[in-house]
Amino acid sequence: MAGPTIPGARGTVASVTAPELAAAGGTVQPPAAGLPASGGGITGARAMRRMARAVTSNRKATVGTVLLAFFCLVAAFPQLIARDNPSAEIYRRFLGISSRHLLGTTALGQDMFAQVVWGARPVLLIAFGVGIGATLIAVLIGVAAAYLGGLWDGTLNVITDVLLVIPLFPLLIIIGSYLHGAGTLVMILVITFTGWSYTARQLRSQALSLRNRDFLEAARVRGERPLYIVVVEIIPTMTSLLVASFLTNALYAVLFSSSLQFIGLGDPNVVSWGSMLYWAEQAEAFQVAPLEIIAPGLCIVALGASFALINYAFDEIGNPALRPLRRSKQRALRPPRRSKETALRPPRRSKEKAQRPPRRSKRTAQRPSRRARV
Question: Does 162 reside within a domain?
Fold first, then answer.
């Protein structure tokens, strides 16, 4: 392992090991206070272990993880779950629930269960695509603006403030009206490039608090490039915040994409939960077949709840102030532990002790009172 560095010939820096430096008469200096030692710091494996502990120790996060894993399995293997073609109009309209059609049929004669199962894939593609894309853009803009400062910070802040001022959903409606019939990829790009501003502002605030830390000063002294400092030194310390940002962006992507498809601004030929709501509203199916609206609506709610519940755990990691508050609340609500013997044990001060007069010493008993002396 390479040890400390010593000046080499012509101003170069040569790396030597600790035994070689000691043999040459030099001394090995310990790392300065406040600077991370070699191999120290918050590694990715350590952060992932903390996240896993937060998920398993929190019931809401556990429920969210189970729900998300269930929807991912359904989206990955829909052909193993639904045997019918979701787009085939081969059945009678508005059939009820049966062993052949678990949720009945739609107004167009399509199997509703097959549509619900196959509709999970485009929704999850949009959620994960927007979550990853918006988080990457927010990292590039927010962290770079905070670290570089100056003109970069001012310019990127202006762009972020403009997108924060404009209401996002009306903006998506306007863009979607010009891109009528847009597919899944276009939906991902539109929501990604309009929904990164809030996450960028959060990451910029976090990066500003880290800009003058000792480990970043050490990296500058070593002569590291700004790109290396941002990617290797700053971003790994914000792992929990990045995951929380991804989950938030994925949640809003599910809601926005389903809403745009419901009002007819998506591709109606793509089988998804939002397009199911669109066709059900067009056929006025709520009075005839309410499951055509309830089934995709419950799926959207459940998927959004899974992202929100998992985000609850990572909010605890990113904000340590919530941990002692939550523990103190649990202690306050927890009743005091008393064993059976302690509950049946009489109080320490018995009735005889309560009626016994206070003890007075001999000297105090023989001393006359002030009134008697007078």
Answer: yes
